[in-house]
Design goal:
This protein has a single domain, classed as YjbQ-like (Jelly Rolls, Sandwich), CATH 2.60.120. The protein contains three helices and eight strands; from the N terminus they run E-E-H-E-E-H-H-E-E-E-E. The chain has helices at residues 22-32, 57-70, 88-97; strands at residues 2-11, 17-20, 37-43, 48-53, 100-106, 109-110, 117-122, 128-137. The protein is elongated.
Length: 138
């Protein structure tokens, strides 16, 4: 069995962003040479997420509104965690959106359903962040 590991780095300009990382993940798969196996993509920061969904801007705005209703950023004083930082909402949003995804690899391709894409979700940005890609298989 072969394995492949790569860290993807992103310069996040806004506090919250959704980035389609599917093309980059596909490039990692190509570099790995693995034809059959599994790929794990996980956020390496506690205030960010990796998830699979449709690449549709309206849906991304819906995520933003929905998450903000569930865990509003302000007022900062509503969270005990914010006595040290101002990102408690980002920790909660990450919990909702998830830490990682695992995708089957079949015949050298991501074995997706229709419209599925991989996204990096950032909830406390404005700095450099990373994602781990780990591939195992033959």
């Amino acid at each position: 069995m072969k394995s492949y590991r790569k860290e993807l780095w992103f310069d996040i300009k806004e506090r919250r962003e959704f980035i389609n990382i599917t093309p980059t993940v596909n490039q990692c798969l190509l570099e790995s040479g693995i034809q059959e196996g599994l790929i794990l993509i996980n956020a390496m920061h506690i205030t960010s997420s990796v998830f699979i969904n449709d690449d549709e801007p309206g849906l991304h705005l819906d995520f933003e509104k929905w998450l903000e209703k569930l865990a509003p950023e302000k007022p900062y004083s509503q969270y005990k965690h914010n006595s040290f930082e101002d990102n408690a909402d980002a920790h909660l949003k990450r919990t909702i959106m998830g830490r990682e995804v695992v995708v089957a690899i079949t015949e050298g391709k991501l074995d997706f359903g229709p419209w599925e894409q991989i996204f990096y979700g950032e909830f406390d940005g404005k700095r450099r962040k990373r994602v781990l890609v780990k591939i195992i298989g033959e």
